[in-house]
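User: quick one, sequence for these tokens?
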């Protein structure tokens, strides 16, 4: 599945400042149990404090929280979930500000079949 650029959201502090979040989720379709890799590219910004990744089928949930050090944080992050069971998953990638508000969000769907 190709990289998809999220809808650009404004930062809470400055409506003119766009926030870039670009996530790629692979594979889009696979036989379960599957290994799912989520790669995320973010812009550097002092307001970037948490990268949150959630894969949820309604019956199975995997999540990761990656603390960020603002503009000092790495731009590229990768998470691998192994052995994921069959289901249709919504994968949500969120970039959070210091106060916990969502700066940017991107959603993908994957189908793991048995």
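Assistant:
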């Amino acid at each position: 599945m190709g990289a998809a650029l999220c809808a650009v959201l404004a930062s809470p502090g400055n409506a003119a400042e766009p926030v870039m979040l670009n996530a790629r989720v692979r594979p889009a379709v696979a036989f379960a149990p599957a290994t799912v890799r989520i790669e995320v590219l973010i812009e550097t910004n002092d307001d970037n404090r948490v990268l949150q990744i959630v894969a949820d089928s309604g019956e199975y949930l995997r999540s990761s929280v990656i603390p960020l050090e603002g503009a000092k944080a790495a731009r590229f992050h990768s998470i691998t979930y192994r052995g994921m069971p069959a289901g249709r998953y919504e994968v949500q990638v969120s970039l959070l500000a210091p106060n916990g508000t969502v700066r940017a969000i991107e959603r993908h769907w994957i189908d793991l079949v048995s």
